[in-house]
Protein: Amino acid/polyamine transporter I
Amino acid sequence: MLATWTPDQELNQVRLRSGADMKRKLRWYDLVALGIGGMLGVGVFVTTGPVARNNSGPSVFISYIIAGISALLSSLCYTEFSVQIPVAGGAFSYLRVTFGEFVGYFAGANILMEYVLSNAAVARSFTEYLCSAFGVNDPNSWRIEVHGLLEGYNNLDFTAVALVLLLTLCLCHSTKESSILNLIMTVFHVIFFGFIIIVGFSNGSVENLVKPGGLAPNGIRGVLDGAAIVYFSYIGYDSVSTLAEEIQNPPVSLPIGIVGEGQASAILVI
Structure:
């Protein structure tokens, strides 16, 4: 249970068990787009407002800087491991080689649960945004209520299920085609994000920094608490490392993809 694997075992023996090699169709810019698409997601739009209101105040950008530095350090660790052990297992494989099978399994199970729960939350949020786009104030009107289930957990969201199934079919069809779709969506996403930045600068005021409470109304504690929350907005570089077996020239593409998307996202977010 505590036995560790060597890099050779992780690179060769596991691959022999899994069958045919994956097709290497992705390039470094595909990784950057995938990472930015994952990081500039619901986290930025959902966490920024509540953190600015409840924790950091106008200093929310400092919280993003602190979280960005922490994410950069973590992404550098992922970069080093992904170059030394370029396999699709990601953090699971890195920890199995370093600390043993139990730690690798524990971390892998947590990461899997993280993706399942976060994707489910994002999919349900999609229903709410879609309702708002159609002028529907109550998103539960698009959900089916089951009276036999626990209150608060009894609204089945088939719109979210359809979205997940559609994206899953796209991913199963081809990695390259799904990467192109993600690239197109990321371009629109960045353009929309740029629009928000421009509107924010044009309508913002320096008075927000000198009003009662000032830059950090809750002090350094509020800034640090906000940094811990907005760190969620930087999640995405870990998924890039799992594409190690599907990219061309991993020693070159992986560092550019992991670090590049982290820095690009940090600049846009801050």
About this structure: Residues 101-133 form the longest helix (33 residues). The chain has eleven helices and two strands. Strands lie at 144-145, 155-156. The domain at 22-269 is CATH 1.20.1740.10 (Amino acid/polyamine transporter I).
